[in-house]
């Protein structure tokens, strides 16, 4: 169960589809297509969509939601041959072990690539869930290695390593809306951090901690709104390679 309420991503999808000029005659590859929410919006704009995802259940849901599109179970690192006018990967980059390989794979079948990632933790209200339960969770240790991909400079570096050129780095704010306290707290309780906190403190203490921490996000009608920032990176092949394969520079 996700802590993300339904329909939260509409502004993010809209930005992505604007960047790829989704419309009649445009072919779009949706990597990590999930249940087809972005594909539905793209097809409604007139685009032809092909989607791939490793989750068979998500692919089945996407095919039901968007029967006009084509979906398959598959690895984003081995996309369909195409060619496509554009390839998109919404919230996928942080979930693959080799982001550069994903970007290269996308660029191999499309001259235009658009990816999205979360903003910094300080730019996202969902950090409040972890902060509320921090006293019952293992301490956060500094992560060795390069900066997080949420950092714009790191994103630009990854795009460059993939042999692409950054055209734009945009920011989009999406609101997570919860109609009441139960809808806010329930998904957290069954999440990884929620289960850990429950084992340490019990449901009453955990619920109180969440509600107290998110008091400023409560609206007069009892609903809750959390505002979170996302980055949208638009990248293209270098001009000399616009009609040919992307070279594979070393990592």
Kindly name the structural category.
alpha/beta
Q: Percentage of helical residues? A: 25-40%
The largest beta-sheet arranges its strands as 3-2-1-4-5-7-6
Unreliable spans = 245-251
Mean pLDDT: 92
Tell me about this structure:
With 251 residues, the protein is an alpha/beta fold. The chain has helices at 10-19, 37-44, 56-65, 99-109, 127-133, 152-161, 181-189, 192-201, 203-213; strands at residues 27-31, 48-53, 70-73, 86-90, 112-118, 165-178, 224-236. The protein has a 7-stranded mixed sheet. Helix 5 crosses helix 9 and helix 8 packs across helix 9. The radius of gyration is 20 Å and the shape is globular. The two termini are 35 Å apart. Residues 245-251 have low confidence and may be disordered.
Give a brief description:
The chain has about 250 residues and is α/β, with parallel strands linked by helices.
